[in-house]
Structure prediction request, 655 residues.
Amino acid sequence: MKTKTILITLITMLAVTALVFQSCKKEDDNPTIPDVNEYTLCENVVVLDSLITPVPVIEGNKYTYTYNTTPPDFKVGDIIIGYTDGGYIKKISSIEKSTNNFIIVFYVVKAVFTEVYKTCNFDIDIPVFSNQKSLDDKVIFSGQAPGNVELDVTIQEGYINTDLTLNFKVVRLDGVTLLFELNSTGGVNFKTDINFEVNGHLNEYGYEKLILPPMTFPFLIGIVPAQFFLGFQAGFNIDISAAGLLNYSCYANGEIEAGAKYTNTDGWNSTWVTDGDFVNEGVNWGMNINANAEVYLKPEVKLLICGIAGPIINIKPFLNLEAEVDYPQWMWEVNGGFSGNLGFELNALGFFEIADYEIPLVQWDIQIDQDNGTIAGSPPTAIFTVSPSGGTTSTTFAFDASDSYDNEDPTSQLQVRWDFDGNGSWDTSWDYDKTENHQYGSEATYTAKMEVKDTEGLTDQYTKSITVNNGGGSGTFTDPRDGQSYNTIEIGSQTWFAENLNYETTNSWWYDNSSANGDVYGRLYTWDAALTACPSGWILPSDDEWKTLEMQLGMSQSQANATGWRGTDEGKKLKSTSGWYNNGNGTNSSGFSALPGGYRNHDGSFDDVEKYAYFWSSTELGAHAWDRILYYYDAEVYRYNDDQGYGFSVRCVKD
Prediction:
C-alpha cells in the first residue's frame, strides 16, 4: 500500500516569517552588526517578567494587571513583552488609572518584532523530533464518497519518525534587513501498509484528515517568545474503474534540506535538496480493475511569534500505485517521492521592505518497484441495462448486455440468455446478440436475470428489479388564477403536478430573479408561502404523502421513515432525463420530471441550480419543515427538515 515517507522537513522554516516589521528609530550614523545572537533593545521596551509582573486579565485590547506592590511607572508608547499564553508584544496606547494603587490597566495595540530591537543578529537552531509515532489502524476515510460509492481507506500498520533541525537567521541594521534565512535539514522515516476498499467506480476523489495530535515546540528569539505546532495529516487521491480492493505496503527513509534566503543585495533564493530510499513490501490487487491510488503524509504547521502567525509551508511525501489490466496482460508500478511549496507572507505581517515570497518546490520521485504478467483463464462478468427501469403492461422494455466482458475473449464471442421474470426458466436460448425486447403481461416487480458464457464455457449471472404498474396516467391542468398550464401525472393512487409551481405569491422568487429560469424551474417559495400557493383542489403534499409516492416507486416503509439518503433508485425514477449537471440525469420512469431548480438563501442569494432539487412538504417540525432533496450524483431521495425561511420548489398533489 502506499508509503509516504519523506516529509516535511520544512516544517518550521517558517519560523521567522513574523520577524520582519517596522523598526526602531535610527540613532547611530555608523552602526555595526552585532555578534551572533546579540542585539540592542529599544529604550522603551519593558520585559514584564523581569519586573515580576502578574498574569494579566485580557479583554480584547484591554490588559489589567494586579500587583502585590506598587506597579512600575509605565508610559504611553512603551513596548511590553509578556510570556502568558505563548507570549505577546504590545504597545501601550493609553493607561487607565485605578482607585486601587496596585491595579493598572493598559489599552494596547499590536507591536512588531523590530520595535523591540535596534539591531539584531540571530542564528538559531531548533531541534524538531517526533520520536516514533504509531499509525496502526488509522482510518483516513470510511463512508460514502461521490456517486453513492462506499469507500474505506485505512493505514493497517505503520509509523512515522522525524529528526529535523530548523535554522533561521536574521540580521537587521539601522532599520534595514540585510539577511533573512530559514533552513530545515534532517530525516524522516516512515512505514505504512495502506488498504483501499471500494464498492464501485470512483473518479479522481481525494480527502485528507489530521491523524496525529499537534506537538508544541517553544523557543525564544532573544527575549521574544515564539512557538510552533507540528501535526501530521494523512490523505489520498484515488481513481478506480470498478469495485475492488487495493493494498500496498512500503518503507521509506528520506533526507531533506529545504529553505529560502533573502539578502538586500541579491533578493530571494531557495534551497531544495532531497534523497530517499524506498522499499516495496507488497502489492495486493484483484487484477480486475484499473486504478491509480496515491497516499501521502504531510505536516500541519502553525508558527506563532508572540501570537502572530508566521509563514506558509507544505512538504508532501507521497506513494503512488498505478495498476492496469489490458486483458490478458496486467501490470503495476509503485513510485515514491515528495513535493511541496514554500512561502512567506511578510507583507501580511506589516513588513513591506521585503516582498512576499512563494515558490513551488520541484517534485522528486523514483520508481520503487513494478511487476507484470498474464492472467490465467477466468469467468466472464455479466452486466446488463434495461430501459426504462419501470413502466406499465404496455411498455416495451429494452434489455442490453453489451457491457458484459471477459478477461480473455472479446465481447463479440460471449453468448447470453435471459430469464425476464426470474422464475428459473430461461426465456431465450444462448445467443451472441446481446439485446432483447420484452413486454410484461401483468403488474408486478420482476427480477430479470441474464447469464453470460465465454468460449471456455465459464459463466456469470446478473439480476435487476423491474416494476410494472398501470396506476399512472398523464394529463394537464390550467390554473384559473393566472392561466398557466401544468402537466400532471398519476402515480399509484396520487395525481401530481409534473412541473414545479410558477404562481406568483408574496415571498416567492424566480432563481436569480430571472423569468427565463421561472419558465424552466418555476418559483422558489418560503414554507409559509408554499402552504397556500397551490390552486384550489390541489395542496402542498404532506410528509406522509411524499412517503406514499416514494413507496409506490419501490421504497420500503422503514426506508421512507428514515432521514437522510434513503431507498435505492427512487430519486433516479423521479428525476428528468435531461437538465442535470454532469449528466446526473434520471430515467423519469415515474413521469414526475423533477428538475434541479436550486434554492434561495435567507440573505437573498441563490444556489445549486442544475445540481439540486428541493421540495417542501406541508408537515411542520418546530421552526423547520420536512422536505425532499434530489442531487445530480445520487439515485436516492434525501429526507430532511430545513428552516422555513429558505426558498424551495413546490409540487402540488391533488386533494
Summary: Confidence is low (pLDDT under 50) at residues 1-23, 347-352.
